[in-house]
Amino acid sequence: MLDERKRKILKEIVDEYIETAEPVSSAVIVQKYEPDISSATVRNSMAELEKDGYLEKPHTSAGRVPSAKGYRLYVDELLKYDNISLEDIKYIQEKLESKATGIEELTKIAATTLSEVTHYTTVSIGPKTSKQIIEEIKFVLLGSRMLMGIIMTDTGLVRETIIKFDEDITNEQVDTLNYFFNNKLKGEPLEKIDTSFEEYIFRELKYSVNIIRPIIEQMKKLIEEEEIYLEGANKSFELPEFKSLELAKNFVNILDTKELMVDILDSGFAEDVKVYIGDENDNEELKDFSIVTFKHSIGDKDVGTIGIIGPKRMNYSKVISVMKYISKKLKDFDNDNK
Amino acid sequence: MLDERKRKILKEIVDEYIETAEPVSSAVIVQKYEPDISSATVRNSMAELEKDGYLEKPHTSAGRVPSAKGYRLYVDELLKYDNISLEDIKYIQEKLESKATGIEELTKIAATTLSEVTHYTTVSIGPKTSKQIIEEIKFVLLGSRMLMGIIMTDTGLVRETIIKFDEDITNEQVDTLNYFFNNKLKGEPLEKIDTSFEEYIFRELKYSVNIIRPIIEQMKKLIEEEEIYLEGANKSFELPEFKSLELAKNFVNILDTKELMVDILDSGFAEDVKVYIGDENDNEELKDFSIVTFKHSIGDKDVGTIGIIGPKRMNYSKVISVMKYISKKLKDFDNDNK
DNA sequence: TTTAGCACTCTGTATTTTTGACTGCTAATA
DNA sequence: TATTAGCAGTCAAAAATACAGAGTGCTAAA
Predict the structure, then answer these.
(1) What SS3 state is found at B335?
(2) CA dist list (Å): A128 to A159, A300, A308, B165, B299
(3) Strand residue runs (E) in A67-130
(4) How far is A167 from chain B (nearest CA, A)?
(5) Rounded to a whole number, what is the distance in Å from the CA of A253 to chain B's nearest CA?
(6) A-chain residues near B234 (CB < 8 A)
(7) Does the nearest atom of strand D lie within 7 Å of B37's Cβ?
(8) DSSP readout, B34-81?
(9) Does A207 have pLDDT greater than 90?
(10) What distance in Å separates the CA atoms of residue B199 and residue B191, rounded to the nearest whole number?
């Protein structure tokens, strides 16, 4: 449907717009990319690209700007994703190899590095915990009325919490708790720690509610925990689109209503690098932004998701290249640790 | 020096400006606050207040705006700090009583609550760890090549970290580590965990560097950790002063260069509610903002500091009232737990 | 199919005009 | 002496106007 010339010109327009943030005119295309054809020819192609929905005009006498459909074609078909410098490769390797204390920290480090290399804002969330399989549970007495509960899962996730009591706990009780929790929960998914489990423990152990209740409560909190980390939010404010106060406000709001970001990061499949352009996933607030995400998974379980959010006019080539590279590195990392 | 009328009018002007964000004219003062005197009289007083440096004029035909000196008098002498509703009191009590798992979480909860009640952005940092006294150190084996290190201090702070090794660790080694660390460090400040301590352990235990090194490294990281938490950053963007893009950008920058905020939060004395107006602590970047802080201390050790940052035209009365209340509540809380 | 050329459109900017919100001062008043 | 009415003067912000130039789309020729 689109001949080679139109594809080429579309790519050039998007490239140019990404670089300058100004509507692109036929003259510029001729000057910088197509010295051998005339601006009238370019204009003809542009008119057709607009008719087909790939370009838009802010107004009659302005240049053209890519539409969401235009960006989509650009991202899906017109780009190559090997736009990553040796320097960046070296930096990323270095960062990822500095030993993280666990997969949660690893995700954070990856997100920070991504933000540093691309100069965009990144958002990351930890693993969806509820489906992870419990490998071990450990209670440790800290003082007479305080316990630390530690849970380890099959993906290498370790979470811990402090539990406080209104009465003293004995060493024997701790041993019994360790035995019961492990016996009953090892090999089960984390979501098994629920009210019915609380009832079971209560029936079996006959400990006072003052002991059982805080434990279960804290453990449940531990599972629900879904921290979301932001990196480089201020970098975005340097971009020209943020001169529009409305846009800037929208941006802050998107980052602040964490549910929205979590929803987007959670959707999509493992290990794909996914690109959401503007309001493709019909959310009005996102219409001026694009989000690029990928999931870090071990087996069939997600252990962390990272997203980059920036203006629609973001440097997709670099962002996606770097993400693919980091994704691959994390994968290698997991295999080495097997 | 300032007679009663001038003080009264100054307070009214600041009140009015805080409410409307618009320069205040003599007419408004007469209309809303001083029906019994004429605008000419108010104008005379305003002229004198300006001469004395309490008010400023954006330009000849505008109303008056408080100067930093004006705000200072307002905060120090003209306000009463009991501007807190029963509703807010109830809400704060509820929030603080929901059991936190430790003082670090308590500080975070207090900061969040403060932001919710005042609708301003809050910033909080945890305790300065290095001077805290070690009460107990505990190592727990998690699998054969992973240890959890837990440190408890006299203020009730608990920090833990995961330590990974390249070789197996035995239960005996863990016991020995527990003994040595506690024996040598109990009663000492956290900063004692340093290179010379590493050398000592290495001499005494003769464990391989592969064991000692990761432990000390992780422990040191634990102490240095100084997280800074932001709450309600987006709320500020709703304020009219943030229509100025420059201000908005400044604000983002202030929040992002964490050192600046940490510096300000760290200064000042325990348990005072301190108010910094504009560039009083001569930092150019802060000239359009005010910061109100207080420290939560147990004994002579800070366990957390909370700050509110907003435009100079912030609702000092409410902010300071709420802060004083929260400060008192935390104090009570500590005493109860003694 | 491509291109030169030109009329037309529309925005952004600069310039001027108008409006109206306030003040400061003067002179009268209590 | 302290207050006030009244008014001229000031200045910014808004509205109106004019202008330049960037870019397109179309026509007709190559």
Answers:
(1) helix
(2) 13, 12, 19, 27, 41
(3) 121-125
(4) 14
(5) 6
(6) 252-253, 255-256
(7) yes
(8) -TTS-HHHHHHHHHHHHHTTSEE-SSTTS-BEE-HHHHHHIIIII--S
(9) no
(10) 15
pLDDT at A306 over 90: yes
Which residues in chain B are contacts of A234 at CB distance < 8 A? 252-253, 255-256
A164 contacts B142? CB cut-off 8 A? no
Query: What is the SS3 assignment for A57?
Result: coil
Q: How far apart are CA B236 and CA B310, in angstroms?
A: 7
Do A326 and A130 meet the contact criterion of CB atoms below 8 Å apart?
Answer: no
Which residues belong to CATH 1.10.10.10 in chain A? 4-78
3.30.450.40, 3.60.21.10, 3.20.20.70, 3.40.50.300: which CATH number matches B86-128+227-336? 3.30.450.40
pLDDT digits (tens, 9 = 90+) for B77-117: 999 999 999 999 999 999 998 777 888 899 999 999 999 99
Given CB atoms, is A230 within the 8 Å cutoff of chain B?
A: no
Protein fold of B4-78: Arc Repressor Mutant, subunit A (1.10.10)
Q: Enumerate the CATH 3.30.390.60 domain ranges in chain A, comma separated.
A: 134-224
Inter-chain residue contact B158 with A148, CB threshold 8 Å: yes
Specify the 3-state DSSP secondary structure of B304. Answer: strand
Handedness of CA A140, A142, A144, A150 (dihedral sign): negative
d(CA B338, CA B332): 10
* A175 reaches B (C-beta below 8 A): no
Say whether the CB atom of B183 is under 7 angstroms from strand D.
no
Whether the CB of A99 is below 8 Å from some CB of chain B: the reply is yes
Residues present in chain A in total: 338
3-class DSSP assignment, residue B196: helix
**Does domain B134-224 bear CATH number 3.40.50.170?**
no
pLDDT of residue B270: 67
Across the interface, whether the CB atoms of B138 and A140 are under 8 A apart is answered yes
Tokens 């959310």 -> residue = A283
Which pLDDT band holds residue B280 (cuts at 50, 70, 90)? confident
Asked if pLDDT for residue A269 goes beyond 80, the answer is no
Taking only the tens place, the pLDDT of each residue in B58-71 is 999 999 999 999 99
In percent, the amount of chain A with pLDDT more than 70 equals: 99
Nearest to B218 among A101, A148, A162 (CB): A101
Residue A61, CA: closest nucleotide via C1'? D23
Whether A222 has its CB under 8 Å from any CB of chain B: the answer is no
Residues comprising chain B, all counted: 338
Work out the minimum CA distance from A56 to partner chain B, whole angstroms.
28
Is residue B151 a contact partner of residue B159, using CB atoms and an 8 Å limit?
yes
The number of C-beta contacts closer than 8 angstroms across A and B is 70
